[in-house]
Design a protein that fits this description.
Blueprint lengths: L4 H13 L3 H19 L11 H10 L8 E3 L4 H26 L1 H11 L6 H9 L1 H18 L1 H15 L2 E3 L3 H23 L5
Helix pairs in contact: 1-2, 2-4, 3-8, 4-5, 4-7, 4-8, 5-7, 7-8, 7-9
């Protein structure tokens, strides 16, 4: 069961790129549930005290780009899907794959899973965002290694819920600023983890 992750991830990638995201996430969630049960190690050590720090990190990711954002609130089902998608990805990437591949490789797989190959413009845009996806996967992996995937899920949910309201016009300057925000978050996270400020 645990060795099926490559075809499952490939099926997920194909389904997402065919605009069948609900089916893709359902497949990933079902597989992740059984793969996580199989792993049965490194339980979560996160607590309610971690929530403010994790939400602060999720908000900080967006701060450097606030002058460029246009706020647009979404229908309720978009928030619900964003929540489910974040938790599903965390169960798979940080609850299972992190312990199978290690921190940098799971972040690399996370990055590639976010490429959109259905349209040349989408492919270029998502390819330019690849360093951001890698940085996010790396940061979430750092948190999951220390606190478990439930803590990284809080970060991911907070990040998604902030991000879906903030529309960003796409250009290379904004991509560079986003990557600068990624580096800032990794530095803050390493500081918090080094000094055990996330208890």
């Amino acid at each position: 069961m645990a060795n099926l992750w490559v075809p499952i991830l490939l099926a997920y990638f194909i389904l997402v790129n065919l605009s069948l995201a609900t089916t893709a996430y359902l497949l990933l969630l079902i597989y992740s549930y059984f793969a996580f049960l199989w792993r049965r190690e490194n339980p979560s050590t996160s607590s309610v005290k971690d929530l403010p720090v994790l939400f602060l990190l999720a908000v900080l990711w967006h701060v450097p780009l606030l002058p460029y954002y246009r706020i647009q609130f979404q229908p309720v089902y978009v928030y619900a899907f964003s929540f489910v998608a974040a938790v599903t990805e965390e169960v798979f990437f940080r609850g299972f794959l992190l312990y199978r591949l290690g921190l940098p490789l799971q972040a690399l797989v996370f990055m590639y899973s976010h490429l959109n190959v259905t349209d040349p413009v989408f492919l270029v845009n998502t390819a330019l965002l690849a360093p951001h996806y890698f940085s996010f996967g790396f940061s979430a992996g750092l948190i999951a290694e220390k606190k478990g995937f439930m803590a990284s899920s809080v970060l991911h949910v907070g990040y998604n819920l902030m991000g879906i309201n903030l529309l960003l016009g796409f250009d290379i300057v904004k991509v560079a600023m986003l990557f600068a925000a990624d580096l800032m978050i990794i530095a803050i996270l390493l500081f918090f983890l080094h000094f055990n400020l996330i208890k």
